[in-house]
Specification:
Blueprint: H1 3-14, E1 26-31, E2 37-42, E3 50-58, E4 69-74, E5 82-87, H2 99-105, H3 114-118, E6 122-125, E7 133-137, E8 140-147, E9 153-161, E10 167-176, E11 211-216, E12 220-224, E13 229-235, E14 252-257, E15 264-270, H4 282-293
Parallel strand pairs: 4-6
Antiparallel strand pairs: 1-2, 3-4, 3-15, 5-14, 6-13, 7-12, 7-15, 8-11, 8-14, 8-15, 9-10, 9-13
């Protein structure tokens, strides 16, 4: 993370011709669980070769793990709608080496307890992938939700379930349900559900009243290999990183699955066949590696 800022200041403060002024406006990396990273560049964001793939939540159990709610995801919604009930578990957490802390500590994001956390969550697992899948952009959720409490929150993770049963963290997001109103962002924003978090945009949480909840996860660029599964874990808190006041009794969330308004995951999927060859920045990767060796 120190190399690109150094290149920037070397050029604009010291006048060094290092090519930073000729780099693409957008530079990002696509990674996989093995640690392999491919650097890419683009003139704009989101990428033109990215389209949305929808995975609908379904009530059928996946059988991959015992959890508070074990359900599935599918490309087509179930014909009939039903609700799944989940009692918020305040012991659910992500640990103290997560995304919300790593920038302060110069540490890698680590979540060794994802399998144990999943047991305390409402969990939706997709089918094993028949071919590789590249996700590049801002994943989002569209949820049909009710609560028996007058306030609450969601903490959601997107994960990769490997063929050997291990779990890889991909992204996460959280939302105070009173901030669920989707507003127009006053600046460029590529995601589908921006929340202003302004007091004038607060929406009450009325017990038993259905809510349409749209929320984004952090942008990500990852390659998922064949045989892996995607899963979404939904909790009502992250005890290690978010302040969600406990209620007694703990609220019960009810999620609509199946039918035309099924809760769903929206994935920004990159189509390699439509990707221009110039997207891959091989020289940039060589340059960064060489700079690392000189530190």
């Amino acid at each position: 993370p120190t190399i690109e800022p150094l290149r920037y200041f070397d050029h604009w403060l010291k006048g060094i011709d290092n090519g930073v002024d000729r780099d693409p406006p957008v530079i990002f990396s696509t990674s996989d669980p093995s640690g392999k990273t491919v650097w890419k560049g683009a003139a704009s964001w989101p990428l033109p070769e990215v389209s949305t793939r929808t995975l609908h939540f379904a009530p059928e159990p996946s059988g991959t793990i015992d959890s508070a709610v074990d359900a599935t995801m599918a490309d087509k919604p179930s014909e009939s709608a039903r609700t799944l009930a989940y009692r918020v578990d305040y012991a659910t957490g992500m640990g103290d080496c997560g995304r919300m802390r790593f920038m302060l500590r110069d540490e890698y994001i680590r979540h060794p307890g994802l399998s144990e956390r999943a047991k305390r969550c409402m969990r939706f697992t997709g089918p094993a992938l028949a071919e590789a899948l590249e996700i590049t952009g801002t994943p989002a959720l569209q949820l049909g939700l009710t609560s028996d409490a007058a306030w609450g929150a969601l903490h959601v993770t997107l994960e990769q379930l490997m063929p050997d049963g291990s779990v890889v963290y991909l992204s996460e997001g959280w939302l105070n349900l009173e901030h669920r109103k989707v507003s127009e962002c006053p600046r460029p924003h590529s995601g589908p559900a921006w929340h202003s978090q302004r007091s004038e945009d607060l929406l009450p949480v009325t017990p038993g009243e259905p809510m349409d909840v749209a929320m984004e996860l952090y942008p990500v660029s990852v390659r998922i290999e064949p045989g892996s599964r995607l899963r979404v874990c939904i909790a009502g808190t992250d005890k290690d990183n978010l302040h969600v006041p406990e209620q007694d009794p703990a609220p019960t969330l009810r999620l609509t699955v199946g039918g035309p308004q099924a809760s769903r995951l929206l994935l920004p999927v990159d189509d390699p066949a439509s990707r221009p060859a110039s997207r891959i920045l091989e020289l940039s990767l060589i340059h960064i590696d060489a700079a690392d060796e000189g530190l």
